[in-house]
Known about the structure:
The chain is mainly α and 204 residues long. The chain has helices at 3-29, 38-41, 53-65, 68-81, 83-111, 117-124, 127-158, 163-181, 187-203.
Amino acid sequence: MNSLIIVFIAALLFFWAYRFYARKLESLWQIDPKRSTPAYSKFDSVDYIPARNWLVLFGHHFASIAGAGPIIGPVIAVVLWGWLPALLWVILGTIFIGGVHDFGSLITSVREGGSSVADIAQHVISRRAKIIFSLFVWLALILVIAVFAYLCADTFVKEPKIVLPSLGLIPVAMVAGYLLYHARVNAILTTVFGLVCLVGLILH
């Protein structure tokens, strides 16, 4: 199948999910845009800070969810079963699994004052449940980090040319954060600066 057709079909499905399926989820969770969030009700300039949705919050969330499942899972699926299962996993999994999970967990956290899932477990179940859940999350994160460390190290050894672009992301992100939050540079200009730096690292 032509790749442009695949992209077109995926775009249609994501558009439908954004315009219609997301509204269904909003009605199920009874979303009220006028309701104050912890970023405002508990504002402290440290942990609770209002963020612009498309320019800042979307980027943070996108970076946070790009974990082992969404990245490594489709790669393994392609190797074992071919491109179709991987494509279905990425598109349908994003809409019906990943999107619902992330949306539901974020809204639950917001309504619990920005609490973590472990704190919510303590409030709803017991302190023992919080301890067990915290241990599970801790062990799961160790596993995820170990897998990423192994894959990154293996990739760096096999493709040394990607070392600089990959590690160069860290100082670029630090400079971009400084420009946004301390120098108060326009978000669009900061984004352009970051993209130019990334392209320069890739083309070095």
